[in-house]
Design brief:
Helix content is 82%, strand content 0%. With 456 residues, it is an all-alpha fold.
């Protein structure tokens, strides 16, 4: 009876997660599109639901909610479900949509046949990804679940480390008022005057081109020149054909300059808004948070570098380690097991909410940046693929942030994987991503004033 009640509770939460994914799809991703592909919407919502269910089961594990056998059963069902979606369903339907948009086949049967061939090619590449990495033990069979999880983990951990490295650098850069360019209203007015002068020159030169082309056409008509035409030709000499070409080249250059001036004006207006926002209470709060994240970023880069150099992976979760330090060095008496359970629950809850929120925001920005009416369905399924791999990898890495007694079931579900490799791989990619982001943002920050000086 308890198993049935537990299953009902898990299914109810899965329906809630499914509804959340459905609403996010309708209200955020496809709010500007009238035509919705129901299979695409269904696949995205199912992927989101299965991903959130894994996080839910981690929290249930820490709090002791549901029977242990029920949790293990739903762990297995959820993991097999998300792997089936990521390995079979999403790649096959993405292939079908790509071939349909390219119109490579006339009949639907031929389209599905080509899609199946593309899916087999994807499966081969997906399998070959794991060859260079020490991700499995030799005892695993070719059809074991570890074979699939290990390869999903490599891709997901890479994506997660790239996003984490960029986010750790970009967050303080966006929040701290120190990195805001110093601009004033006079800078905006100077650029706006320059833009108006450029637009006036464009209008003047286009009028001149139109007059020249009209006069050239009228000169081809055989008619005796009148008094006014002779007077006009005496006071106004027509530019040659080469001058018309030069005028058109000038117009193109001025249009490009106007485009750059307009973008610079928009950027300066945004900077002025950031300056005004930084003076508010909320802006000062985010400035403080930015300083905190800058310290976190430096510390995280340093720790990742130490882990890579000394091949170090923590064996004790951070919460238990901190509590043991308080007990051993400060003489404060704590019930380590009790507090590690509750603090770990809080930490994991924050990590889960932050991961879901941060990934959804990133997916939304990326979708709006590259989507179109023809490619939107393909892009959203590709983002669903990345989202599923990201969440599976989050569970894989989150295992280390849990006390030892709660890692057992995750280890049993995920299988005998080389967890040490994934943490080391995360540190390597995180370090590369963070250092690359620092270099990119430094160049962008240094280049912005130079553009302004060139345009003014």
């Amino acid at each position: 009876m308890s198993f049935i009640l537990d299953s009902i509770a898990v299914l109810f939460t899965q329906f809630l997660f499914f509804g959340g994914g459905w609403v996010f799809f309708m209200k955020k991703l496809f709010k500007d599109y009238e035509v919705h592909n129901r299979p695409v919407q269904l696949m995205f919502s199912i992927t989101f639901s299965l991903s959130c269910t894994m996080f839910e089961l981690i929290i249930f594990e820490i709090l002791g909610i549901l029977d242990s056998n029920s949790r293990f059963f739903h762990w297995k069902i959820g993991l097999y479900g998300i792997l089936f979606v990521l390995t079979f369903v999403l790649p096959l339907y993405i292939s079908y949509l790509v071939i349909s948009n390219l119109r490579l086949a006339r009949s639907n049967q031929t389209t599905w046949a080509l899609s199946f061939a593309c899916w087999l090619a994807y499966l081969y590449l997906f399998w070959k990804i794991g060859d260079p990495f020490p991700i499995l033990s030799p005892k695993h069979g070719i059809l074991s679940i570890e074979q699939c999880i290990s390869r999903v983990g490599v891709i997901g951990v890479t994506v997660m480390a790239c996003l984490s490295g960029f986010g750790a650098v970009n967050c303080p850069y966006c929040y701290m008022s120190y990195f805001i360019r110093h601009v004033t209203e006079s800078d905006v007015q100077a650029l706006e005057r320059r833009l108006m002068q450029s637009m006036d020159m464009i209008v003047f030169k286009k009028k001149k081109i139109a007059l020249v082309e009209r006069d050239q056409m009228s000169s081809t008509v055989s008619s005796p020149p009148g008094f006014w035409q002779r007077l006009r030709s005496a006071t106004y000499s027509l530019p040659s054909h080469e001058n018309v070409g030069a005028l058109k080249s000038d117009v193109l250059a001025l249009e490009e300059l106007s485009r750059q001036l307009f973008l610079e004006i928009v950027d300066i207006h945004n900077t002025l808004e950031r300056i005004e926002y930084s003076k508010t209470f909320k802006g000062k709060y985010f400035n403080f948070v930015g300083h905190f994240f800058s310290i976190y970023c430096i510390g995280k880069i340093f720790i990742a570098l130490i882990n890579i150099i000394f091949d170090r992976v923590g064996k004790v979760d951070p919460v238990t380690h901190c509590i043991e330090l308080l007990v051993n060095h400060l003489g404060i008496e704590f019930d380590v097991m009790f507090w590690s359970q509750h603090v770990s629950f809080l930490l994991v809850g924050i990590m889960v909410i932050s991961s879901i929120r941060g990934l959804l925001i990133t997916l939304t920005k990326f979708f709006y940046a590259i989507s179109s009416s023809k490619s939107s369905n393909i892009i959203v399924l590709a983002l669903a693929q990345i989202m599923g791999m990201y969440f599976v990898s989050s569970v894989l890495l989150m295992r280390m942030n849990m006390p030892a007694q709660y890692r057992t079931i995750i280890t049993e579900v995920l299988g005998d994987l080389q967890f040490r490799f994934y943490h080391r791989w995360f540190d390597v990619i995180f370090l590369v991503s963070a250092l690359s982001s620092i270099g990119f943002l430094y160049l962008a920050h240094q280049q912005a004033p130079n553009n302004k000086q060139q345009l003014t």
